[in-house]
Each structure stands twice: as structure tokens, then as C-alpha cells.
Amino acid sequence: MIAIDQQESVKAAVRELIYRASLLLDGERFGEWLDLCAPEFVYRIKAYSPEIRKEMIWLEHDRAGMQTLVEMLPRHNTDHGQLSRHATVYTVEMDGERDGVSAVTSFACYRTMLDGINSHLDAGETQLFLIGKYHDRFRLEGGRPLFVERNVLLDTRRLDKGSHYPI
Amino acid sequence: MSITANESGSYDSGQALPFVDSRLYTDQSIFEEELGKIWKGSWLPAVHESELAAPLDFRTITVAREPIVIVRGSDGKVRAFRNVCPHRGNLIVRKPAGNLALAEPSGNANHMTCMFHAWQFDSFGRCVDIPRMKQGYQDRLTKADVALTEVRSEVAYGGFVWLCLDPGAVSLAAYIGDAFGIMREELDTEPLDVFHYHKAYINSNYKLWHDTNSEFYHDYMHYFNRATSMMQKGYFERTYTAFPHGHATVGSMEVKYDAYEGVAERPLSFPGMPRNGWKMVDLFPGATFNIRGSSLRVDTMTPLGPNLVMIEFRGLGLKRDTAAERHQRIRDHNTIWGPFGRNLHEDLLGITGQGVAMRPGTEPRHILHGRRENNTIHDEIGMRHYYQEWGRVMGRSPSDPGRAHGLAAE
């Protein structure tokens, strides 16, 4: 159980971690991003479909799986548009029983095009790619928060060409 | 009945180097003609029955610009209707899916209600309420005069709801013929269930997506397929079989999934499906059933213009799956086929590039369909067969659409 007077500093550290993670993902510095994640880290992208009226998982990997996913990127043809995540941490809550922390962050992810369509005409244009919320869980290690779970809950369900990149 | 490879002329033009004129992908007038002759005249898989599992469940879709509502009636039977109010032409059911037991603000539970003037219809399409009918219409109109227009529908081939807007078209069974023979056991031994749905708008012609699903030469674009299939035994022995009405199938091979780092083989399967097998059925004019071991992917298309198509992607497993089995099927599906999967993104980039190079106003060019390799996996027979049917239905030559089909120097 974390003392009440320490909780505000933990919450501030969690907020900073979420924003740091966004910067690292924007910069495609995936190795450094994974360094912010505990060994038991799990990453999911999920959405609810009102068409089939079901929760869907669109991507799910453990930490090793995410590492492989990003390491394999150079072998794949992909859209090299730059993704930029605009995140706002809404809530950070302490889990008193497990010494854990959870947070909900609203985000919008924009794509500044490079080669996904006609680069001569479209490169440089920024489009809204998707919006949603990060539902994150953390644990403290030596007073430092580490991601143990990121659930990306997408509101956007028409993703057109999709993406090879973590959101 | 299948069409054998040696019946040259039945689906292969016999040209030394067959090609399609790119105006098939760019011309607005050809597109409008396709909506009428092809899309309104063909049987199309619309939704899966598991999306309408309970009485009064509904789904809404659009076929050739026509709004359609599909409803499971209170008697359990699935029916489809024009989703247009016979009063003032307004859209009636607006949500993508739901259950009619939930009353709308303008109407009663168990009914489809046009919110505009509160005309109400039951799950059989019968008009059941017209507000102030006697005062407004006296005896000049009866509810029977204004029932919803039913559309031909049938639940078949894996539990899909098939629609055809043309009352005079052949039956679904005649339209499909034996095209599902390769996949019959997998689709129809046990009930299936949808676990994945997403859609994409792509600035490209719908036929180019069907082309992508109808040729495997583009496996050079996919590292995943090169590693797990092209480099493996049996790949170059996979063969195409063509069927009447423009359909084609691709035979199986054993995919070596663990040849891609971080991916395991797929022990789950479907009844009758070889372990780690891979079968495809491509249906004219724009649907593909694709089973890779543990998951079935079904692509359906809604053409929106010569250079715009909406593609809907479904993933299906067995209805009786345990939670663990379903989880595994979803993981397998997403590895390459989800919106964040390895292959789908690449495929969609491929036809997006075609849509850039062949959009309305670009110069007509010849698009080669000329690979002949004894109907094996890099043969382009699937595309040639498709365009033979396209020419027959449209009455135009695919290689010179200004000429009548069969009269051009193909």
C-alpha cells in the first residue's frame, strides 16, 4: 500500500510516462518505448463493432511479440506516413490492494502522409487517422512506474489501409 | 460443373498476351452500367446469420446504392426488404444492426418505424400502422398497398445471407454451381460465427481488389507469404479451377507458419480442412472466402464509384469454439488479416497505388493478365476467367470496352 502522501508523486510519474511513451512512439523509437514496459507487458488494440455487436481484438501481443512486430517492420511494405499521437491523460487511479496504478488517456492519432497514396500530390498532408482511449495499467518498480498493460480502445473503426505500427 | 484448363476460349481469350483495358477501372459510364447489369443481377453474400441470431434482429446494408434491411422475423426466418418508406421515400431503419424489440421514439416495439411520419412495418414487411390513415386517405389506400418490397434472399454456404435484387435472375444454387465444392465441408458441417468485422474505403476500382484476391503472383509483395508459403513445398503446385458465372477456386497447400518469426503453426482448423491448409473461393462479382487453417476470412465489396470501393472484412470461427479456441483463432486471424496485420495493409497499399495510376481521367492503358503456368498458383487464369464473365454480362470486350463482347479481336 502506497502512503497517501506519495500517491500524488506516483500519479505525476505515470502521467509523465504516458506522455514520454507517446513521444517515443511518434519518433518510432520502439526499443526505448518497450524499455518503459515490464516483462509481463501485454498490448492490445480493441474496438466494439455495432455491426456484429461484439467486442473485437484487432492486435494482441506480449512484450516479446511487440518487439518482434517492430523488428520485422523493415521486411514489410508499409505506409511510411508519420503517426503523431495527441494524448491527454484523463484519470490516474491507485489500486490500493495491488500497489498498481491505472490510467485512462484520450488520444487522437494523425497521419502526415509520405508515400501511402501519391507522394507528389499528397506527401505532407496531415489526416486524422483514428481516435480512441488508452486504458493502461502500471506497476511500480523501485518507485518507478512501468507499463504492464496497454489496451488501445478505438472509436474509429473504418481504418481504410490500416497500419503496421503500434498506436 | 467446373471448366477445365484446356477449354481455351471458354474463359481465356486466346490472345498471345491477354490484357484488360484500364477504362474498366476508370470510366463512370461503365461503372453505372456495372451497377445495373452486374451488381443488381448477381447473388451477393451480404451479412452472416450469426449477426442476426435472435428473432427481430436486423442488419442494414446497401447494394448498388439501394438501401436494404435484413430482418430475422418473429418466425425465425431471415428476409430482406428495400429499406425505403413507401410514403415519402425516407430511409426506415438507420442503425447498422440491432433488434426491433427496442422501440424507436416515433414507433412501437417490434416494428420498423419510419421516424419521419411514423409509418410502421412488422418483421414480415407488412405495414401495420399509418397515423391518421382514415382521415388522410379515406378509402383510397390500404396498408396492404404499402408493404415493404421484399428482396430475394437465402441463407446458405456457411450461413451467409445472400441477396439478389433481380427477380428474374437464376437461383442462388444455379449461380454458385459447384464453386463451393472445395470448401463445402468446412463451411457447412457446423454453424459458423463472426468474430471480426471491419471496413475500408479505398480509392480504387472494386475489380482491382477482386484481382488481388484472384492472383497469387503478388505474393512477392508479402514477406509473410514468401517465408511461410512461397519458399515451402507445395506452393507452386496449387491450382486454380474455374467455374461458370465467373467464379474460381484455389487449391490448398500446407503453410509453414512458424517460418515467420514469432508466429506458430495453426493447430485449430475447420471440419475437413487440412492442418495449416489454405483454400480460397473467389466469387463474381466481388466476394472471396479464404480459409487459412484456423480462420475464415470473407471479403465483400460495395462499389461506390469507378475509383472508390468499400470493402468489408469478416473473420469467422466455429460457433462451438471454447473461449480459448476463439482467442487463438482471433490471434491467428489478426497476424496477417486484421487492420494491423502484416498482409492486409500491404494488399490495400497495392490497390491504392493502382487507384492512383488508374483513376478517372488517366490515359487508357493495357493491364496485363497474361501469365500462363498450367493453371498453377502464379497463372492469371483466375482474373482472365473473371473478365470473361464480365464481358458476357456487360456485353463489352474487356480489352476494348467500346466493342461488343465476342466480336473484338481478343
Write structural notes for this entry.
The complex is a heterodimer of chains A (167) and B (410). Chain A has a six-stranded mixed β-sheet with strand order 2-1-6-5-4-3. Chain A contains four helices and six strands. By secondary structure, chain A is of the alpha+beta class. Chain A is globular, with a radius of gyration of 17 Å. The model of chain A has no long low-confidence stretch (mean pLDDT 95). With 410 residues, chain B is of the alpha+beta class. The longest helix of chain B is centred in the C-terminal third of the chain and has 16 residues, at 342-357. Chain B folds into two domains: 5-42 and 189-394, Naphthalene 1,2-dioxygenase Alpha Subunit, Chain A, domain 1; 44-154, Rieske [2Fe-2S] iron-sulphur domain (Rieske Iron-sulfur Protein, 3-layer Sandwich), CATH 2.102.10.10. A seven-stranded antiparallel β-sheet of chain B has the order 2-11-10-5-4-3-6, with no helix packed on it. In chain B, strands 12-18-17-16-15-14-13 form a seven-stranded antiparallel β-sheet. A three-stranded antiparallel β-sheet of chain B has the order 7-8-9, with no helix packed on it. Chain B starts with 18 loop residues before the first strand and ends in a 6-residue tail after the last strand. Chain B contains ten helices and 21 strands. In chain B, a hairpin with a 3-residue loop joins strand 10 (150-156) and strand 11. Classes of the chains: A alpha+beta (167), B alpha+beta (410).
Features:
heterodimer; A: 167 residues; alpha+beta; 25% helix; globular; B: 410 residues; Rieske Iron-sulfur Protein; seven-stranded antiparallel sheet; 10 helices; 21 strands
